[in-house]
Amino acid sequence: MGLHSAGGRTVATGATANISACALWNPHASSRVWVTEISWAKTVATVDNPMLIRTTTRGTQVVTVTPDIDNSYERDIATPTGVLIDVDYSAEPTQAGPHLKVWNCPAAIGSGYIWRFDPPGICVPFGTGLAVGTIQAVIVQPADVTYVWNG
Amino acid sequence: MGMYSTGGRDAGSVATGDPQSHLWNPHSTKRLWVRAFSLVCTGTGVENVGFCRTTARGTAITTVTPDIDNAWERDEPPSSGVVLDLNWSVIPTIDTSRFWRLSWGTSTAAGTSTIEEVFNYPGIEVSPGSGLQLVSESGGISASDQTFTWFEE
Predict the structure, then answer these.
(1) Which of residues 4-43 of A touch B (CB under 8 A)?
(2) What is the pTM of this model?
């Protein structure tokens, strides 16, 4: 148990409502994690509409970041739950709304946000995820995403 | 009991006094406390808004109904039955006092007019049968993505 962070670069999604650009996935059978922060910075100067939503299936990922001991703030142990950060999909995760947060970003490279959540943060139960996607039928542009979590 | 958040896109308003998103507590006894509020406009232009209480829900056309997935612990849906209204055929009854008023100049790009308000602990209390909302103070405002974060017993 402790703080960890990891990130990656997403790819452009389809122009479809309620799809995911990335997600933190908790594959553990019994342990929960708590997300305390998510940051997002766009790499393309096109308007998009990121939102935050839970997922109940992982989908089929094309690109995954697998955190290890170097992603631990204490560098004492790799995240015990085996948390993964998926940043591209061939089959979408299953979303479980309503949305936890909705947003839109201007047409500027580097625009984005840092979402911080009061302690203990947003719980991600085992076998579920927390995704950034779009509520609008508009492409989510490629972005650098970072999750910070406890667990 | 615990923290919750939810949001939606308000269609925007056309006239002074028009409401924006409205968090309504329909419970007969339970209170809740709004900890944070965010707004990001999708349009450009001069915006003038206030943040205030409401005493009647009005008649909502579009409503987000939070469930267990909106609980930060994902342990139970909000016991107050709180809802987020985004559009109305009859607008809520708006109190004349304002927690704050804010105007900003002509934004040059969608997504750049942003409010991210985090209220001091424990937050703004929303009594049973009352609400909290953003209202247009002068003319209309553009469509926006709005999120409420709250705590309830």
Answers:
(1) none
(2) 0.90
